[in-house]
Specification:
GO terms for molecular function: ATP binding; ATP hydrolysis activity. With 255 residues, the protein is of the alpha/beta class. 33% of the residues lie in helices and 24% in strands. The chain has helices at 42-49, 72-78, 94-98, 114-126, 142-156, 172-187, 199-205, 223-226, 229-236, and strands spanning 4-10, 22-26, 31-35, 57-62, 65-66, 79-82, 160-164, 191-195, 208-212, 218-222, 240-245, 248-253. Helix 4 packs across helix 5 (142-156).
Length: 255
């Protein structure tokens, strides 16, 4: 597995100045958290890294080659995306949806085999969804749908996880379980990039952080160097109190 890199990358956020180009290298095994207020461009950046949106300038490189030079099927085998919201207009069961993760490996009109189905069922088990495999996704709660999205990418088995708000709609137990799953994927050699709103999840689970400011400015580095109260207060325009729990900082907004 190889790195995911931004070379002079400026994401295209309508109505905003270009800001600072991103020149960074994200390596396998790292867990990058992207932090910033609403409208800072977190989702736009994630979609640009996935090749789903063209940048205003610069390039994304995967395994040392510009993403634009890859075939889409090859990209789909290497990059897995969990979107912020699901749209389930078509009737499909939980198992059928998880099996979408195997499509990059199948030829046109090829059906999933026993190995694909076994992989999907194992992913559903990991996300505590095995009892729902025959349910229509459209009938599930928001948190259950989010876990189906995660199970689909787990079935896909990409080199890189690009996850927009992984804990969206999840209860506390499943928030922790999801962050632990992403940490495990990184330990197994995958790279993880996740947009987060929860500073405390970022402090506890991320190895690196990228801070995106509303004016297009950005800074990045190891999480321990980025979790500076003054920088975070400027990022969110919010005063914070900091305490330490189990060796990790916990940030509490000042009322």
């Amino acid at each position: 597995m190889a790195s995911l890199e931004a070379h002079g990358l400026i994401v295209d956020v309508p109505g905003r100045a270009s800001g600072r180009p991103l020149d960074l290298r994200m390596a396998p095994g790292e867990r990058w958290g992207v932090l910033g207020p609403n409208g800072a461009g977190k989702t736009t950046l994630l979609h640009t890294l996935a090749g789903l949106r063209a940048p205003r300038d610069g390039e994304v490189h995967l395994e040392g080659r510009a993403l634009s030079r890859w075939r889409r099927r090859e990209v789909a085998r290497r990059l897995g995306v969990v979107f912020q919201e699901r749209h389930d207009e078509f009737p499909a069961s939980v198992l059928e949806t998880a099996l979408i993760g195997r499509h990059p490996y199948l030829s046109p009109w090829q059906r999933e085999g026993e190995t694909d189905i076994a992989r999907a069922r194992e992913a559903l088990r990991r996300l505590e969804l095995e009892h729902l495999e025959d349910r229509l996704v459209s009938s599930l709660s928001g948190g259950e749908r989010q876990r189906v999205s995660l199970a689909t990418v787990l079935t896909q088995a990409p080199c890189w996880w690009l996850v927009d708000e992984p804990t969206n709609h999840l209860d506390l137990h499943h928030q922790v379980a999801t962050m632990a799953l992403l940490e495990q994927q990184a330990r197994q050699g995958c790279g993880v990039v996740m947009c987060l709103h929860d500073l405390n999840l970022a402090a506890r689970w991320c190895s690196h952080l990228l801070l995106l400011y509303p004016d297009g400015e950005a800074c990045w580095g190891a999480a321990r160097d980025m979790l500076v109260p003054e920088a975070l207060e400027r990022l969110y325009d919010q005063a914070l109190t900091t305490v330490e729990v189990d060796g990790a900082p916990v940030f509490v907004p000042v009322r």
